[in-house]
Amino acid sequence: MLKRIRNSILVTFLVLTLFTVGCNNAKEPVMEEKATLTGTVEAREIDIRNKIPGEIKTLKVEEGQSVKKGDLLYEIDPKDLIAKKMQAEAGINGAEAQLNKAISGARAQEIAQIEALLAKANAKVQLLQTKYDRLLQLYEAEALPKDKLDDVETELTVAKLDVEAVTAQLSLAQEGANKDDIAALRAQASGAKAVLAEVNLHIQDTKVYAPFDGVVSEVIAKEGELIGQGTPVLTISNYQDKWVEANMDEIKVVDIKIGDEVEFVSKAYPDEPFKGKIVSLNQNPDFAIKKSTNELNEKDTITYAVKINVLADERTLLPGMMVDILLKDKNVIEKDTKENDIKDKDIKNGENL
């Protein structure tokens, strides 16, 4: 009986001892174990470039100035484009006048004028023909040099060619332009209108507006400066639209997914983590860090680009700041789980004694 009591006391003592050791050696909650990853703060930023060459007529903003979407930033002097617009409008008027004339045909007065020219040309031919016939008789009678007869013959030939030309002109005026001529004139008028439309677009491009709300972080060009197409004039930044970019190695990247929320800290706020959400995970490797072949058989470490949007926070985070991203350490989680399983088994074994 006494022996049975001693065994019961021993089992109870063993169970209490294992339970106490397990409690004392218990790890802190898994969420407290963190692995860090270095990232860089980025913000939405855009260079405002000139679409057309020209002189900056007015510059409406300065560095550090806040702007709203649609605010006028600067204006290019449009005087050269206005002159081109007038030329384009004149080209349209001329092309349309020729087209209308071809479609409607020549007027009766124009036809009458051409007929008068033809009659005059025929009269000249008749006069020269009579003169040529008379001189030919004198030449045959050897009373006239050959060169005199040749001069009149040349004049007669030219006069006949004039008659043919005027006759063709009269025929064209009476019949009107053919379909091919009209089509060509239509194309010419359309081309002139396209030139005007392009000039109007360039005139609109002389006024440049802010594409989004932000701050003018840099002014590159000056008022009165002549700049070329594509030249940056100023830079606008939106410091409210910011994110963190980081390169995560292949070991950690398999433990995250788009939509996960993470925390990160900066040197300015080391004890007050910011919150963010993973919005992009590049599936292609970004770069590899070469390691020594003698370093514990380690292979090259491949990294993947991760983008983390910064959730609403009034504290200052500026582009270029370095932050430490806090991640759940998978190795710590697995280690704690295994240790807890072992303790549970030890306790059960003690209960079975």
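the 2nd protein, sequnce then structure:
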Amino acid sequence: MYDVAVIGSGPCGVSAALKLEELGVNFILIDKQSFPRNKPCGGVLPFRAVEEFELNPEAFERPLLGYRIFSRGGVEVETSFPGEGALVDRAKFDYYLISRLNKEPVRLRVRGVKAVKEGVEVLCEKKVKASLVIACDGANSIVRKSLGMNYPELATALQYSFRLNNREIERRIGNWFEVYYYFSRGYGWITPLKGIIKVGIGGLGKEYNRELLDSFIVSPIVKDKLEGAELSGYEAHRIPMHGPMKTTVKNRVLLAGDAGGFVYPGTGEGIYYAMKSGIIAAEVSEISLKSNRFDDSFIEAGYTEKLEASGLLSLRDIDFIDTVLKSPQAAERYVKKLAKLNSIY
């Protein structure tokens, strides 16, 4: 029997595992896939992630200066980080994080979890039992669903990859993550990597489909940046856009990362919040184990306190989708305000 079973080996799960390893907690890290593996993602690491987690620059595709934001009406504004962030390829970055562990993830397909005497059983090909579980298995979390916990509404994100000469990427986009507030209850983006541009859309509603993505890549500004680029891939995934769930603990299971809704709704940024929430979940797990307290009220109180102190629960208060992004007109007003503030400061 393990002290903790961590489900999912993305940045959230590996960050939790690294912290458990540091704390001397007996754990198993589980993922259904082998690594390296591709992962649909914009690949944004803000400055605070690079600084706080002491990440090796060799794992980065290019530095990130900040966000370049566009409105449908043609307003453009740049918001710079206080320091240098990074843009990453998730296949490489996730594999780098795993390489920091002393033991590799165990490849198992999890079907859910169930409460058993003095612990939690992870339902998969082999018997895995733990005192606690940290669910880091993404927006479509199997663990969360098996507990009967439903996220309010998941956004659909679709993304193309294009090959383009790195010099052209530098000239057309540079070291910026570009956000396009062209749509209702969603947005588009362009991520520049090494010889690759990732172009995507994400939002709430049935209109977020491949047809809308196809119209986005031929829209003004975007079309020019893709001139001569060669389409090389297509991906789709889900994103939680309403902030962290009201309840993040049930039956000795802590929800972290996308599984718990830890994503910034204005840009879909989730890597930092995934890593931070995974680390906090590991710290709370160790406290629970040392205290021999496994009731939900005790775990939830400790988790909430640490999440609150870190600022992660403030994501619940950001009603970005249904205010700023409720329409292209509302987004236009927002970008104009940003531009005005930039001109003042």
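The first strand starts at residue 2 and ends at 7. The mean pLDDT is 93.
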